Amino acid sequence: MFSYKIVNTYPELLVNAPLMADLRKRFEGYTGPVKNAGGVR
Amino acid sequence: MRGAMFLAAVVLSIGARAVSAETMNELYQRAKAEKSLVIFKGGPVVEYERWGKEFEAKYPGVSVSVTGGFSNVLDAQIDQQLTDKKVTTDFAVFQTVQDFARWKSEGALANFKPEPWDKIDPSFKDPDGAWVAVGVNAMPYAYNPNLVKPEDVPRSALDFLKPVFKGKLIAAYPADDDATLYDFYQIVQKYGWDYMDKYMANQPNFVQGHLGVVRSIASGENLATLDTIANTSLEIIHAGQPQAIVFSEIDPVPVWPLTAAIFKDAPHPNAARLFLNWFMEPEQQSRLAYWSPRGDVARLPA
Lengths: 41, 302
Description:
heterodimer; A: mainly alpha; extended; B: alpha/beta; six-stranded mixed beta sheet; three-stranded antiparallel beta sheet; 11 strands; elongated; disordered N terminus
């Protein structure tokens, strides 16, 4: 896996609650709220 | 002297294997007394239902139930169980790693280090054993090879701004899906928020969760995504449906751990430990449709 060009900082981002809240708000400003519901099966 | 050291090493090695085997057998006996295992799995659930059946065949007498759903829905259900002090979930597997960090800080998780702990990359485990990655997923691009010409196959995030994809792109909602948010966040960090203005000008579509993303591309409703999850696309590919994935050599491909933990008040803790130890064995890890967090299991997605 590490032979690919990857970025592996996911946990650091996700535990940064203020940044996550800010990013969610900012991206929702582009996409709007969830309208097209999906599933897992 | 060297011969004596070699002999000692062999004896130690045999001893370590024997202890490990005995532990699994002991765990199995205790798990059998508990009779069942309750797993909550975030995201597509079919894969874990298969693993559950394999586990039941390997360890008769321990039945496995798998509840599937979106990680950011199932985590709220577990929060409620914890609040009510009625934990019915033994083992959770989610993409929302922040939940495990929070549950650890609240003392809700049992520390357990599956074998071989030292083979797991430090970036994919909690040092105390509160949580551990059971797989590592990547977020390459995906497209429909029947509908996208070879010269239009996306190689970087900028390619998704091309007119050929207008109205025919799809992704999960970044504000709803944390892996997708991580994906888009990498792009805006590199290309600036201006990228989002241009991307939205190409009239992309959004759906909740990645199963909808890959099915939409396979059906031809949409042509491409910068936001697939490798194993979700590979499930579609292995089912014979039209889909291809691309690992960009220009933009870094986000990877993230599929994280698991056992709850401190789990009703079937030994069954959960047995399952986690079994799942981390090379025989299972080498058959994942994504990467193993074990450094000694080299299988690549294909």
